[in-house]
Amino acid sequence: MDADTQKAQAAAKAIEYVKEGMLLGLGTGSTAAHFVRQLGEKVANGFKVAGVPTSIATETLAKEVGVPLLNIDEVTTLDLVVDGADEADGALNLIKGGGAALLREKVIAHASKHMIVIADESKLVNTLGTFALPIEIIQFATSITIHEIKNCLKTCGVKGDEVAIRQKDGAPLITDNGNFILDCKCIEIPNPELLCFELNKIPGVVENGIFPNFKNAKRTLVLGTPNGAKVVE
Ligand code: 5RP
After folding, report:
1. Is residue 215 exposed (0-12), middle (13-18) or buried (19+ Cβ within 10 Å)?
2. What is the pLDDT of residues 180-202, one digit of tens each?
3. 30 C-alpha to ligand 1 centroid (Å)
């Protein structure tokens, strides 16, 4: 079974959690796109929900498939967010941001009572850090910000310290919020919660792609596998 089929399978399992009338956060990336398309099919059959997208790409897709959207400024809390991940560990801490949407994804996840993370089984890891950690930074003074990030990685016990500004079409990628993304090759992140807090103390950092499992909201991981969707709570 290929990764994309596993992603579609995980999305289908997540659809089972969606109840009529819910306000949903709609994640970003290829796995979340499966969920949005499947949700669109339900809506076409008369199912009533409203969504808030975590990126312009997801907003475009949701409109294409007919999922009703609310303006984010009309919303304070959401019932459920369904989103993908680049890595998840056994404690359901995540690395996100491979699709450059980590800031809006984190705002929406933080406001949601329940987060369902959908992924193919390759995303489950023992320790976060093989996937380069995305960090959204302002465009001003990138050398200073990168220098401070490298110091922070070191003090948080991270092995790797290679940091690069993400490129797209030969120029730095600009996020939906007008910022840059750094990709940090951490190799291993011994304490994700600590690194998340420390990175966000750096003035040029807007947000980072570690989503610690804070337990203030429910988090469920749904993995597509050759033996069917596997749910980890
Ligand atoms: C976007 C994300 C995505 O959820 C993450 O990159 C996973 O993407 P995919 O489902 O395409 O593997 O965090 O910012």
Report:
1. exposed
2. 999 999 999 999 999 999 999 99
3. 7
